[in-house]
Amino acid sequence: MKTPLLKELKKYREIFTNELFNNILSYWMKYGIEKERKGFYPAVDLYGTPVLSANKTSVLNARILWTFSAAAIFAGNKEYGAIADIAYNVVTEDFEDKDYGGYYMELSSDNRVVNDIKHTYAQAFVIYSLCKYYEYRKTDHVLKKIKDLYILLEEKTRDPQNPGYREAFTRNWELFAENRMADNNEPKSMNTHLHILEAWTAVYKIWKDPEVKSRLTALTEIFLDKIIRPDGHFGIFFDESFNEANDSKGICSFGHDIEGSWLLWEAAETLGDVKILKRMRPVVLKMADSIERVAVDKDGGLFLESTRYGSHVRTNKHWWPQAETLVGFMNAFQITGENKYWEIVKLSWDFINKYLIDHERGEWFTKVNRLGVPYLTEPPDDPSPYYRNDWKIDPWKCPYHNGRAMMEMISRINCIIKM
């Protein structure tokens, strides 16, 4: 390795380490934990004040569990581990449905069930977080919870007649017609399958069961054969047979594309199947190249999406796609060794550092415009999906995307330096 690159990698490793420990995790430890330390606030405004009227979600609490479990492993830090313990108790005691299995979507601020729909997306995040917690606390009890939930989800959510998984169910696991959590009410979605892939990858890392391997393999094939378009972008919404819906064909979700590029490679590496790796390599690189061509702005910020077959680009830059841009292009750099991908990583970080990080009050702004100006209220002509610009923490804005990105970047730099 050339000395200038080695110096750069070490420099950015220090930058990412500082961001992880001294901004992201420290913010959540200061503002996210309830005073009684029995749970987490459902929302916090821009000034650090809890919004107690907001509902608590299993998605947010599972992502907190994943983040602090990962951080406890990553740093060998018992304080992070104690927060992971709190999150584990919240997820498994407050959100778990003890009668029908699975996890509720929403609770009120005083822990009453207000939404008992079982979204497959949310269940996937719970099992993903439980797997990371098991890596930290290797107990038979946690492993049993993971296995039981995996078996339940395979039984209840996998389509028995067609490829893939269905979207949502009632509390007692009857198929729920109003199944999508986003724009189109289609039977299947890319987003749900991406996070099932992420979850089943985590399950297979800790439980080398042949059936888990088979299901994860089938998911990679669904992405390769059904979800990824020839141009390297994901399709978004699908019918029962996994044909893309007409209303979906003109949409590109850039954040999901770049996140998916590295999650698919991670799944292929975890499976260790040479044929899948050989098939996946050019696909994930095409995905990264497609994003670089149409979605990365000159300043390194990632646009949100395009609609109408690319004729309209939503140029606002949301927090989570910026985090995934770092990891996606770092992954492409590791696969190929091509310096152009590392240059995009640096440009992307420059944008994040200049515009997205709130250097005054901590954490990252939810959304900025193309020029990097934060939205502190919601623009009526360009609404965000779910999350709010006037909250730093909300049912969807979490430490998982940016916290995970920092840990991924540090780990990946360490791997390159050791080569």
Helix content: 40-55%
Secondary structure category? mainly alpha
- Along the chain, the helix and strand elements come as HEEHHEEEHHEEHHEEHHEEEHHEEH
Q: State the low-pLDDT regions, or none.
A: none
Question: What general form does the structure show?
Answer: globular
- Supply Rg: 20 Å
Which band does the percent of strand residues land in?
5-15%
- Strands ordered across the widest β-sheet: 2-3-4
Main sheet characteristics = 3 strands, antiparallel
First-to-last CA distance: 9 Å
The helix tally amounts to 12
Mean of the pLDDT scores? 95
Number of strands: 14
Please tell me about this protein's structure.
The protein is mostly helical and 419 residues long. The chain is built from twelve helices and 14 strands. The strands form six sheets. Strands 2-3-4 form a three-stranded antiparallel sheet. Strand 3 and strand 4 form a beta hairpin. Helix 2 (58-75) runs antiparallel to helix 3 and helix 8 runs antiparallel to helix 9. The longest helix has 29 residues, at 3-31. The chain is globular. 47% of the residues are buried.
